[in-house]
Specification:
Blueprint (H helix, E strand, L loop, with lengths): L15 H9 L5 H5 L5 E4 L12 E16 L6 E9 L2 E8 L4 H4 L6 E10 L2 E11 L9 E4 L8 H10 L18 H10 L4 H32 L9 H9 L7 H14 L6 E6 L5 H14 L3 E5 L3 H15 L6 E4 L6 H9 L5 E4 L13 E7 L6 H8 L9 E6 L5 H4 L7 E5 L10 E6 L3 H14 L3 E5 L14 H11 L5 E4 L5 H12 L5 E4 L12 E6 L7 H8 L10 E6 L7 H8 L3 H11 L24 H15 L4 H4 L1 H6 L1 H7 L3
Parallel strand pairs: 4-6, 8-13, 8-14, 9-11, 9-12, 10-11, 12-13, 15-20, 16-18, 16-19, 17-18, 19-20
Antiparallel strand pairs: 1-7, 2-3, 2-5, 3-4, 5-6
Length: 672
């Protein structure tokens, strides 16, 4: 058996330069390389002849000639063109910013080309196809794996390097118990050197099971570790809690009451609470956090609330101050822009502040607490593990503070059981009274002038505001997508009397905050933005949203974006604008008919393919290579096997590679 932890340069054909590129993308060992799985497969068994091509995705077989590269009018764009021919005819081929194609092809060699045959600048062409030399494809299967390009390494390079290591797959050791011996090496071999579509599916199923096993095992071990920690027991004060509720101008929903009671019970225990509070946009998570913080302060402990942005921290500060300061709670805001930081930090360490709300400024070494008993993290997926741990370590006496993590992304039950298997979960499934459902409409681009523009005028003239969401920051001639900047210019010409601003992720933080603050104050009528507003400031006065090129977004993201409106008592609308004349996708139709984030979360799981994880984690905290959380049978099987695995303590020593490998999952799933 081979040592999968050997450096990647030990493989044939991987020199120092190639190894450096691979390391840059996290491929450092032989194991990393073998688990760099294909993102797709090309099937070259039945290519289309050129004279029979129809618009859409095609696979053709032919020779290429006449290659040349020119600069487009746009400064950063190069266009490489050529002609592909077979016995039946010829077709123009175009690549954008892929100048290396000039040197890729041999004049007498045949290639398979896979790409979209479409109308471009008045002429049908094959646009940006992938290419594979016919001689390198196994004629018995006609299947070729497609790898994600890394730096200068293209899919063909990965196929070649995998081919160099073909014999080594037979030496891959088993990883997990309770499965057939040799299944791991067989599965890895099949995903890289497939013999049939059926064999690929079987191989992917084992690798998905392996991944889920590791993830669930990590979550279970995290829970064990958390149960060993000691925390401050914070007593529940019934009388003061009743006074708090009596003073509210509204009645809590049943879900808010249940979640708050679960939190109070957790804080009375000697081990630290590790609870995830999930609720749809506008479900009242902040009020649950306020009651939890008040309970901790009544018990004599300090509370820290960590928010991902300064503007969200400020919003929490203003809202919680209004609720808690009349009850004697001393509330402070600590962000990068806070003046007299040293003075404030001195007050915190001297126990002169009960609740401190802030951003990353809370994490600095010189921010110390006297008796930190509760940590609340808003949009917890926005923070890395190290950042969370840093805040948790600020509690005195080597005791861990209780932790309440909040997320506005509804998480399906199957995901809770795996990624968040080490957490207790409270769900806010009801909306507060007075909230009106957002009316959602699908709109074709050509209908915007007649149907949307009049709504914009009505909205602004009655004193309300609008979000217009765009996919891109800058224009790209390769696509029809309108950018934030050009959409702002177009809208300003159409509505010259309105103040219109744009917002995107490449702006400096201070600049972004300033734009958002002007919008929050009502100084800007229309905000044109990328998805940076997906989780952010609460602007109850914004009652209209348009999402351009809506078909290019995931269902969860569309629902989060839509949640920026409908946050006040007035009726709100969201228009999903589709490009071209294609029929609306199922996810757009589902969004049009439902405002229920939990229902949409389950739909999203069914619509997504393997390898993509739902909701909060699609921000990059965790990327599964192959598993999908819609496969409940595989999840249950992995859960059952993990339970059996943990019954035998000797397994922790016996399966060394497994125990080393799950460390990354423990870091990603743990919240303490």
């Amino acid at each position: 058996m081979m040592d999968l932890m050997e450096p990647v340069e030990s493989l044939k054909g991987v020199g120092e330069k190639t190894a450096e590129i691979l390391r840059k993308f996290g491929i450092k060992t032989v194991k990393d390389f073998f688990y760099n799985l294909p993102r797709d497969y090309e099937n070259y068994q039945a290519p289309t002849s050129i004279n029979e091509m129809r618009p859409g995705k095609v696979v053709i077989k032919g020779r290429i000639s006449g290659l040349s590269t020119r600069r487009a009018k746009r400064r950063n764009l190069s266009v490489t063109e050529g002609v592909i021919s077979d016995a039946t005819g010829a077709v123009k081929v175009v690549w954008f910013n892929q100048g290396y194609r000039i040197k890729q092809f041999g004049p007498e060699k045949e290639y398979y080309f896979t790409g979209n045959f479409e109308l471009k600048n008045g002429r049908y062409s094959l646009i940006s196809p992938s290419a594979a030399e016919v001689a390198q494809i196994d004629p018995r299967t006609g299947l070729a794996p497609v790898y994600v390009a890394h730096g200068g390494l293209k899919s063909n390079d990965f196929r070649r390097l995998m081919g160099n290591s073909r014999e080594k797959f037979a030496l891959v050791p088993d990883l997990l118990p309770s499965v057939k011996t040799g299944l791991r090496k067989e599965s890895l071999f099949q995903v890289h050197f497939p013999s049939s579509v059926k064999d690929i599916e079987k191989a992917r199923e084992y690798l998905a099971y392996e991944e889920l096993f590791e993830l669930i095992l990590a979550a279970k071990l995290n829970r064990r570790e958390n149960e060993k920690l000691k925390a401050f027991k914070i007593p529940f004060n019934l009388a003061k809690t009743k006074e708090f509720l009596a003073g509210l101008p509204f009645t809590l929903t049943g879900a808010q009451k249940r979640a708050t009671w679960e939190i109070f019970q957790d804080m009375e225990k000697k081990e630290p609470m590790n609870r995830l509070l999930q609720g749809d946009v506008g479900s009242g998570k902040t009020m649950v956090a306020a009651m939890s913080a008040y309970g901790a302060v009544l018990g004599g402990y300090q509370v820290a609330l960590l928010a991902p942005t300064a503007i969200l921290a400020t919003q929490h500060f203003e809202g919680l101050s209004r609720v808690l300061e009349p009850l004697g709670v001393r509330v402070a805001l600590l962000t990068g822009a806070t003046k007299k930081k040293a003075e404030l930090k001195k007050q915190i360490v001297n126990n002169e502040i009960d609740l401190v709300i802030g951003t990353h400024a809370l994490l600095t070494d010189d921010t110390e607490f006297s008796n930190l008993g509760l940590v609340v993290i808003d949009e917890q997926h926005r923070f890395g593990v190290e950042q969370r741990q840093k805040l948790m370590l600020k509690s005195p006496e080597h005791k861990a503070p209780h932790l309440l993590a909040m997320t506005a992304t509804p998480i399906p039950r199957s995901l809770q059981l795996t990624v968040f298997g080490d957490l207790d979960v409270s769900v806010l499934s009801e909306m507060p009274k007075g909230r009106q459902p957002i009316k959602t409409r699908i709109l074709q681009e050509i209908e915007t002038r007649d149907r949307l523009y009049p709504r914009i005028v009505e909205t602004v003239e009655r004193g309300n505001q609008m979000y217009w969401i765009c996919k891109a920051i800058d224009d790209d001639p390769r696509t029809e997508t309108t950018s934030v900047k050009s959409r702002t210019m177009k809208l300003q010409k159409l509505f010259p009397r309105y103040k219109i601003e744009f917002l995107h992720g490449r702006m400096k933080p201070a600049e972004k905050d300033a734009v958002m603050e002007r919008f929050a104050r009502g100084e800007t009528q229309i905000l044109v933005s990328t998805t940076v507003v997906e989780v952010g400031v609460d602007v109850p006065n914004a009652t209209l949203m348009a999402i351009e090129n809506a078909e290019n977004y995931g269902l969860a993201q569309l629902h989060q974006l839509r949640g920026r409106v409908g946050r006040g008592v007035e009726a709100s609308e969201c228009y999903l604008i589709t490009s071209g004349d294609m029929q609306p996708s199922r996810r757009l139709r589902e969004l049009e008919k439902s405002n229920d984030g939990f229902y949409l979360a389950e739909v999203d799981l069914k619509l997504r393919g393997p390898g993509e994880i739902y909701g909060a984690l699609q921000h990059g905290a965790l990327d599964l290579r192959i598993a999908t959380f819609s496969d409940t049978q595989l999840i249950h099987r992995a859960q059952r096997d993990v339970k059996e695995f943990l019954k035998k303590p000797e397994n922790m020593v016996k399966y060394k590679e497994l125990m080393t490998g799950i460390t990354k999952y423990q870091q990603l799933t743990t919240l303490n």
